[in-house]
Amino acid sequence: MSARNDYIDRRETTETTRPADERGQQSTAEAVLELDGVTKSFGSECAVEELSLPVREGELLTLLGPSGCGKTTTLRLIAGLERPDGGSIRVGGERVAAGDERSFVAPERRDVGVVFQDFALFPHMSAAENVAFGLDDWDDEAREARVEELLELVGLADHAASTPDELSGGQKQRVALARSLAPEPEILLLDEPFSNLDVDLRVEMREEVRRILKEAGVTGVSVTHDQEEAMSISDRVAVMNDGQLMQVGRPEEVFQHPESRFVAGFLGHASFLSASVVDDIVETPLGRVGRDRIHGLAPEYDRAEIDVLVRPDDVLIRPAEEGRVDGRVTYRRYLGPTVLYRVELENGDVVEAMHNHAERVELEAPVGVELAATHDLAWFPTEDH
C-alpha cells in the first residue's frame, strides 16, 4: 500500500463519498470486482464451482445461502485467504488470482478490507489505535485526520480512548468497520457481520452498516445465511447452493421471481398451488387467476399443468361458511405479533397463511381460503416438482 501523505489535501479537493444511488440502480457502474469461472475444491469436495459474478462500484452485494453452500469460501478467495483451482479474480481491473502461482496476489496487496465475524479487535488498544492500525505508512497528521473522520462517520468520536472491553457489541462492530475502511480499500468484505449481536441490535446495525458503507462510497461484499439480513442491507443478493450461483438480482426481484424451487424456498415460506392453464385463465384450487397475473408464463404452457408459488402473506383464511370448506388447519405457530397457519386444501395441496395474533383459528378447524395476492405470481412447471 502506498503512503497516503497527501490525504488531507485530497480530502479538501476531492469528494470522498459517492452519491448513494437508489437500491438496485447501479447497473451502469463499472465492475470493481470480477469473478470469472472460479472453482475451488477441498479434496474430493467442490466448494465453489464455475462461479462468475461481477460486483459493481459502490454497491453492496450479499452472498446468501445455507451452511456449506460455498459463500464463505468465495469470500476467502476474494480476500486471498484461499487460492482458486481455476478461473480468475480481478479487483479494480487487476488480476489477483487465476489458479496458478504466478498470478496470485497476496491478501495484503489486494486493496481489500475484511470485517471478521468476531471483529478481531486488539484488546489492549483504544478504539482510535485500532482504527489507525493499518495506517503505519501514513504520516502522523494524515493518520490522525483519517482516524478522526472515521470515528465521526461510525458515531464513536466520543469513544476514541475506549478499549474494546469498554464498548458494547454494536460499538465494537463499528470500530472493526472503521478499521477496515481506514486504508481506503477498493472493496470491503464482511463475514457474517451481525451473527454475534442480539436480535434488536442486529436490526439496528444492519441499517447502520449500510449507511456507513454508502457514505464512505465503498463497494461491499457480505456473507450471510440470514435471508432477512440479506434482503434488508443489499443492493443485490447472490443466492448460492452446493457451490453454485443459483440466482443474482435485486432483493425484490429474487424474492418475487425466484428462478428455482430452491431459491423460492430458501428466501421464505413457499407453498405451491397445482394449477391448469386454459387460454387466458389459470385454474387453481383457490379459484381462477388471470394469465397476466402469472409472471412470464410462456405461450407453450397453454393447457399445461403448472405450480403457482404463494407465500403466507398471499393467503387469507377465515372460518368456513356453510356448504364451503376449502381446507383444514393442520399446524399453527405463534410468533408474537403474528400466527403462521398451515392448511391442507381439499385437493391435497398445502398452503401457509400469516395472520394477526388476535385472529385465532383452532387446529383441525375447517376454513375458507382466499388467494389475496395483489402482485404477479411466480410459477414452475409441474414436472420440476
UniProtKB/TrEMBL annotation:
Pfam families: ABC_tran (PF00005), TOBE_2 (PF08402). PROSITE patterns: ABC_TRANSPORTER_1, ABC_TRANSPORTER_2. It is found in: Cell membrane. Its EC number is 7.3.2.6. It is an enzyme of class 7 (translocase). InterPro entries: AAA+_ATPase, ABC_SmlMolc_Importer, ABC_transporter-like_ATP-bd, ABC_transporter-like_CS, ABC_transpr_FbpC, Mo/tungstate-bd_C_term_dom, P-loop_NTPase, Transp-assoc_OB_typ2. SUPFAM superfamilies: MOP-like, P-loop containing nucleoside triphosphate hydrolases. It is a peripheral membrane protein. GO terms for cellular component: plasma membrane. Residues 1-24 have a biased composition (Basic and acidic residues). Residues 1-26 are annotated as: Disordered. Its main location: membrane. GO terms for biological process: iron ion transport. Keywords: ATP-binding, Cell membrane, Ion transport, Iron, Iron transport, Membrane, Molybdenum, Nucleotide-binding, Transport. Residues 33-267 form the ABC transporter domain. The keyword Cell membrane applies. CDD domains: ABC_Carb_Solutes_like. GO terms for molecular function: ABC-type tungstate transporter activity; ATP binding. It catalyses: tungstate(in) + ATP + H2O = tungstate(out) + ADP + phosphate + H(+). Part of the ABC transporter complex WtpABC involved in molybdate/tungstate import. Responsible for energy coupling to the transport system. Belongs to the ABC transporter superfamily. Sulfate/tungstate importer (TC 3.A.1.6) family. The complex is composed of two ATP-binding proteins (WtpC), two transmembrane proteins (WtpB) and a solute-binding protein (WtpA). This is Molybdate/tungstate import ATP-binding protein WtpC. It comes from Halalkalicoccus tibetensis.
